[in-house]
Every structure is written in C-alpha cells, then in structure tokens.
Automatic annotation (TrEMBL):
Lyase in keyword set: no
Intracellular or extracellular location(s): Cell inner membrane
Name assigned to this protein: TRAP transporter small permease protein
Family the entry assigns: Belongs to the TRAP transporter small permease family.
GO CC, any one term: plasma membrane
Organism expressing this protein natively: Halomonas binhaiensis
Domain of life: Bacteria
Length: 158
C-alpha cells in the first residue's frame, strides 16, 4: 500500500527549488560577464525559500516525518498514547490555525495599505498571501495525520 502523499506541496517545493537555482545561476553568470547583477534575485529567492520551507514542512507533516520525540508516546499504554495523539493533534491545529488567522490578517492589512516590497516595489501582499495559504494547507495535513495516527495507521518508527 502506498503511503500518504502531499503531491501539490511536493510539486510546489520542486518548482521553488528549481527556480531558485535557475535565477541564482543566471545572476552569477550575468554578474561575472557584466559586473552587475539583477535586482530581483534576492527578493524572489527569499520568497521562494520561504515557500519551499512551508511546502517541505507540509510534506514532512503529512508523511509523519517531522522532528519529534517519541519516547513518551512509546512508554504510554494504548489508552494514554491515544490521549497524547489527540492532544498533539489539537495543539498542532491551534498553532497552525493561529498562523493562518494572523497571516491572513496581516496579508489583508498589507493589501488594504497597498504596501510595496522594498526591493522591487511589488505589492507586498503578493508575497504574504502564501503564508496563510500554506499554513492552511499544513492545517489540513495536520488533521489528516492526526486522524491516521488515531486510527493506528502510523506507528512511531523508533
């Protein structure tokens, strides 16, 4: 049986990494030939790196491969382990829900204020909209993995 997948996030992370590599390579070549560099590369690279981080975290979350300490979980009896899994799931939902809410609020404010990015003068919300979108996707993945763990589909592989 094939394990759980986060295909959209995998594709997004791959695209972000490829684009970062390409614009960095082009920037190095242009700087070597002309002595100057493109202005957009740093701003886009930072944005794509953040996007890559969220997409990778979502993939790790869905496949239950994020950093965790399973000592307590392995030491508890079945009933205690299920309570701990429920507690972990609720904590993850709360944290990701807060990130989604406040990220959405911040994005909306930047849209209303028409703030421009410092480097290229693009609307700042173009970059910020990905924070609530990716954290909402991580929230979905958190619910999926918590449900799978609750049903015993994932075990701690210590």
């Amino acid at each position: 049986m094939k394990g759980p997948d986060a295909r959209f996030e995998r594709i997004l992370a791959t695209l972000a990494l490829v684009i970062i590599g390409l614009i960095s390579l082009v920037n190095v070549v242009v700087r070597y030939i002309t002595g100057g560099s493109f202005a957009f590369t740093e701003e886009f690279s930072v944005f794509l790196l953040v996007l890559l981080t969220f997409a990778g975290a979502s993939v790790a979350l869905r496949s239950h491969r994020h950093i965790r300490i399973g000592l307590l979980e392995r030491a508890l009896p079945e009933r205690g382990r299920r309570v701990l899994i429920l507690f972990q799931g609720v904590c993850g939902v709360v944290v990701l829900g807060l990130i989604t809410w406040f990220g959405g609020t911040m994005t909306w404010q930047e849209y209303q204020w028409q703030t421009l990015s410092p480097g290229l003068g693009l609307p700042q919300w173009w970059y910020l909209i990905w924070l609530p979108l990716m954290s909402a996707l991580m929230l979905l993945r958190q619910c999926q993995v918590a449900f799978d763990r609750w049903r015993g589909r994932f075990t701690d592989d210590a």
